[in-house]
Design goal:
The chain is of the alpha+beta class. It is built from eleven helices and 16 strands. Helix 4 packs across helix 6. The longest helix has 16 residues. The protein is elongated, with a radius of gyration of 21 Å. The mean pLDDT is 94.
């Protein structure tokens, strides 16, 4: 493969018998033979229009612009919008995390992480409650240094370098990548520091579970009504999958796909296209990236959909919770 054409959604374009479609970069191996080159697209009747003063190019057919849509399809629109900006990468091969063998049950280990070297005061009560409820689970807390050591020891310098490319002020994005790598390697339960549970995870996890997935809509209450409905995942029928908690056995294929997508997103991130602050995090490492990679790889995988609120997994268990890092207010690039 000499050329990859990348869309706004961190997907690439393919041609199959003259039909143009998108594929997630995490599915690179399965689609490599069908990745379209610029020449292929021109042969399909498209003209290339450089975007003056902007990163990327547009593909036109007559008076219409080719447009990549969130659901992975391709259409044509009369006016050039942000989503019609494409980029060409010569000889770009997405880095792939080593495949791990998935086996066994979900281990009873609870993982939490923060940038500090200790559990901060506002999280202590919650952390202690989690351990008191889950007496059959081990508990591991990771500081920023612990994250570095974990990634280097288990995945090596190449993947640690992706982590280090994320600006330190985007601590949420660094925590996103770490949680995927941690659960992919070790399995168990990841919880954000502010999140908790009303009952033991042993009462939630079943013997044959491989990974548990949940969206924001709940039968218990409407407190999260409308959450997880970003434009970039408008094709997701039930909105985004929650990743403030992750429950999985080690080596899960869906998490491997998520990691591969996030690594590519970090490498391909551009401030002028993907924005800054909250939007950049959600698209590059957060719930949008998590959801897009999972949605296209649910077939032939074993998973169980749960209602996290009904199961007693609590999104925010901290009274008067105060954010220590307002990454959503950042007005500079996510990567360095």
């Amino acid at each position: 493969m000499d050329i990859m054409i990348v869309s706004h959604f961190f997907t690439f374009l393919c041609i199959d018998n003259g039909r143009i479609y998108q594929a997630n970069i995490c599915d690179f191996k399965e689609n490599q033979a069908r990745i379209a080159s610029v020449t292929d697209i021109v042969h399909c009747g498209y003209a290339i229009t450089p975007l003056a003063g902007q990163t990327g190019i547009a593909f036109t057919k007559g008076t219409l612009f080719m447009s990549a849509l969130p659901d992975g399809s391709v259409t044509h629109v009369p006016h050039l919008l942000g989503w019609e900006r494409f980029r060409v990468f010569d000889r770009y091969h997405p880095f792939q995390v080593p495949s791990l063998r998935a086996s066994g049950e979900i281990p009873r280990i609870i993982h939490q992480t923060d940038s500090c070297s200790f559990v901060r005061e506002q999280f202590k009560k919650n952390s202690n409650a989690i351990r008191a409820i889950n007496t059959d689970c081990d508990y591991v807390f990771y500081s920023e240094k612990d994250r570095h050591d974990f990634i280097y020891n288990h995945f090596g310098w190449e993947i640690l370098n992706f982590y280090m490319k994320i600006h330190p002020a985007y601590g949420a994005a660094r925590a996103d990548l770490f949680r995927y790598l941690c659960i992919y390697k070790c399995g168990g339960i990841y919880l954000d520091m502010k999140s908790g549970t009303e009952k033991p995870f042993s009462n939630i996890i079943r013997d044959r579970d491989e990974i548990l997935l949940s969206c924001w809509d709940s039968k218990k209450s409407d407190r999260f009504h409308g959450w997880g409905r970003g434009a970039e995942i408008s094709h997701a029928k039930n909105g985004e999958f929650q990743q403030w908690f992750i429950i999985s056995r080690p080596g899960n294929r869906l998490l491997e796909k998520v990691i591969n997508q996030v690594l590519a997103n970090i490498a391909l991130y551009e401030e002028s296209i993907h924005g800054v602050g909250r939007q950049a995090v959600f698209q590059t490492t957060g719930p949008y990236a998590f959801t897009r990679a999972i949605l296209t790889n649910l077939n032939n995988t074993h998973y169980r959909i749960i209602d996290s609120e009904m199961e007693g997994i609590i999104y925010n268990n901290i009274t008067n919770y105060e954010k220590t890092s307002r990454y959503d207010m950042n007005r500079f690039s996510l990567t360095i």
